[in-house]
Design a protein that fits this description.
about 5% strand, Glutathione S-transferase omega, alpha+beta, EC 1.8.5.1, Glutathione S-transferase Yfyf (Class Pi), Chain A, domain 2, about 240 residues
Length: about 240
């Protein structure tokens, strides 16, 4: 996978066409949604060209590709553009069928998608709590809500009696859920996992996964970026 470079912002030159047979990822180094796609690319060993985008000062050429201005997006050498993190991951799993990450059984795949749908309702709380806390406001109701949702996620692992959400090895759903758990310590939310022992065990196991290890930032690095993000001055190139 090509190394991440400094982010491109307003006034930057548009990159040339995607080289034949390659795939390009438009990303942002600290974006958990883009990390989903990067995990899948890394796990599958897909050769990728990565271009990081300044999400606060988006280049016009990027908005022309994706009017929503979000990352990640994938672009193929034939000019196809695929948006939305979960959709990019499914696309990669179908286009590069070696080392399939989604189960081949339709019901098992549907189960992963249903769990993802549930998890998408948890994600806003990961942001809401630290941002509300930063304003000096009470977060106890939000904390209780997050603890309850994480407890349900913990119960999924208890009921399945497996090491991961899709079985005894890492599958697509684990990569789709993981990025926010990499950040719980940096975002000062680890205490919300106190009543979720199986989920904590899953976190420990995920930290040993080769793709997770290859892309992981330390809690300190995540903290620096997230602080800059909360203050409205995101330091997208921190550490470069």
């Amino acid at each position: 996978m090509a190394s991440s470079q400094k982010c491109l912002g307003k006034g930057s030159c548009a990159p040339g066409p995607v080289p034949k047979g390659k795939i390009r990822l438009y990303s942002m180094r600290f974006c958990p949604y883009a990390q989903r796609t990067r995990l899948v690319l890394t796990a599958k060993g897909i050769e990728t060209e990565t271009i990081n985008i300044n999400l606060k000062e988006k280049p016009q050429w990027y908005l022309d590709k994706n009017p929503l201005g979000l990352v990640p997006i994938l672009e193929t050498s034939s000019g196809q553009v695929i948006c939305e993190s979960a959709i990019t991951c499914e696309y990669l799993d179908e286009m590069y069928p070696e080392k399939k990450l989604f189960p081949s059984d339709p019901f098992a795949k549907a189960q992963q998608k249903m769990l993802l749908e549930d998890y998408s309702k948890v994600i806003p709380l990961f942001y809401k709590i630290p941002m509300t806390r930063n304003k000096g406001e009470d977060v106890s109701a939000l904390e209780a809500e997050l603890k309850e949702k994480l407890s349900k996620l913990n119960k999924v692992l208890v009921n399945k009696k497996t090491k991961y959400f899709g079985g005894d090895s890492v599958t697509m759903i684990d990569y789709l859920i993981w990025p926010w758990f990499e950040r719980v310590e940096a975002w000062q939310l680890k205490y919300c996992l106190d009543g979720a022992p199986e989920l904590n065990n899953w976190i420990v196991r995920m930290q040993e996964d080769p793709a997770v290890k290859a892309l992981k930032f330390s809690a300190d690095v995540h903290k620096v970026f997230f602080t800059s993000f909360i203050e409205g001055k995101p330091n997208y190139d921190y550490g470069l």
